[in-house]
Amino acid sequence: MGSSRSCGRPSPASGSDGSGAYPARVDESRLRFLFGDVPEGVYPGDEDERAELLRADRPERDGDWSSPSLRLVIANQILDGKPPETWETAQRLLGCGMGRYAVMDQLVLALLPFVVRALFDEQHFDPEGYAAALARLPLPEPGAVFEAYLDVAREQVAMADEELEELVAARVGLDRDDPAAEELLDHTSSALLDDPRAPLTMLTPDIVVHVPALTDGIVLTHRLSAAEHAGEYLHLDTDLAGFLRYPQPRVVAGPLTVDEPDDGGPVFWSGPSGWLADLPLDALLAVRVTAVGEVTISVLDVEPVMPQELVATLRTAYDAEVEEPWLPVIAE
User: pTM for this structure?
Assistant: First the structure.
């Protein structure tokens, strides 16, 4: 996705002569690619020095899937010239206009499936397969795949996980026969579905749901307590749990903040000063949120009667969700 996709596969004549005999100790371009500005005369000869320089150049951040340990493996390959295809690929991608962090992430993508196989499937490292994976780079940037996953999920509202990944792969041009592409899809899916505040969740049997799209415009009722009225917040723990995953909720007076107490108490919305002031104590509220996060609250004069059909449907859904893990199912 994007201009990086114009980077073609390397020609047989590109890069080194294939011998791996790079003068790595005097090749400052490799050092600059890996570590940024390195003091003159400094050559990181052992892994501890290389790891320290990598961490200093690019501190680890939340959500950064390109781990320091994998970047260290790439650094070792580039500085030692083995295999030569790693540095050849880095140069090719840099020549396409990609930044060095993005290029490093691409190299990690190619490497990751082979590390996973070695660790979990006890397979020997496959040099030819790894060289072929490097030659297929670049893949779409992880951020672009992340956004495409959200967009497709929003459009589909609810869809089987495997079918959703097929649509995402088609949208960003991923070849699902490429192990690196599959790793990228799996990582994106896991990052979104493991985040309790992401707009996506999974229901049985492996159905991915875009919650704001599914709950767009529905009405949930909530009894306003004296504590909520005084503290200017609304609990989202049970009857309003369907609205937990809206990333930017807001009322007319301003944005709402989704707060989670340090003591593990219920998540709640807090809002602008006075946003609940006009609501009477112990009122039964009708709360509606649109897909873009616009929250409206009104007071019901009469409490709705609970249809028994709704109770039966809720029980059926609960039984389906609890059948496999046989663990409590959260109110959401």
Answer: 0.81
